[in-house]
Write a structure and sequence with these properties.
The protein is of the alpha+beta class. It is 26% helix and 11% strand. A five-stranded mixed β-sheet has the order 8-3-4-11-12. A three-stranded mixed β-sheet has the order 5-9-10, with no helix packed on it.
Length: 367
Amino acid sequence: MKRSDARNGFTLVELLVVIAIIGIMVGLLLPAVQAAREAARRMQCSNNMKQLGLALQNYHSAYKQFPAGAVWFEGYSGGAPNGTRTVSAAIFLMPFMEMTALYEGFVNDAKQAPPGSSPWESETLRNAGPQSSFICPSAANADTPEYNNISKNTYVFSVGDEMWHNARTNSQEASTIARGDYRSIFLPALPEKFNETRRRFRDILDGTANTIAMSEVAATPRGFATVKGDVAAFNGIYNGGTGKPGPCLTVPLNANNPYEYETGADCWRGLILGDGRTINNKFTTTLPPNAPSCAYGGNNNSWGTYSPSSQHQGGVQTLMFDGSVRFITDSIDSGDVNAAQVTTGNSPYGIWGAMGSPQGKEVTELE
């Protein structure tokens, strides 16, 4: 019987060549797949912001004003009588985002809470878990709660180029230079000036298409003092009379990891839905996106310069008061960051500062 010389498989060399070709193809395709996934996440992030913009518009239509940046609410008055306001404006947007049941549950919790309690003690928020409407899917560990199963909130409100005393405690407001009320739409409310604190569309003199309402934060896990997403404890931003953002650019970094601060602030930036404290739920237009953030005193009640941040490549998404969403790059003009903050007139922090101040009269410069 004849023996066949036909081969039934690959030689070792041929097999290695095929494996090498497959490896090269995977290496070429993987970045494209990752880019496509990030594009989808970024689109969802943008859609979430548009929903928040619509909620702000509808809230204003219902109440003829925007929600205050933070308030004491029923039993959730943990900062009273002289501390910072703790309940975020995000809570009051819920009824306009098809989240009425969650809002009503929070209100009931607040009414039953002993005075001096805090919003992150709400059983309703704990039981509800992550809320995708308040989370950018590009954020680190986006769907993993950091505190008692309460959802993160990676979308933050603008306090403009107001820096020194943007936490607005009663004692801080005793200083005239602290009164940067018209540098922002979402400053925390003062009880004795509650209605005066609220802002309306008519207060946005620079135009709704030119003024930022909200942006985002990377919400990095609390255990890491990451430059992108967290805050440094750094008193160098205070010059003895007012605040300056520039020194924050030279904040000391971890000697073993240049992507982390040497000393991180004790805060929960973007990690607790309902937490309205400035360091955790707001941002300033003083230093550009993804720049370092610094808190004077380094705690949850601190004022400071708080940059928006994201895991998107090269910048952050911002919601304008007209409801549009814009992508702002890290390289946006930020003027003279070593200038002291102002309470009236043009922002010293370039186009970025102008976009944050609703009454800075920089409309022609933005155009």
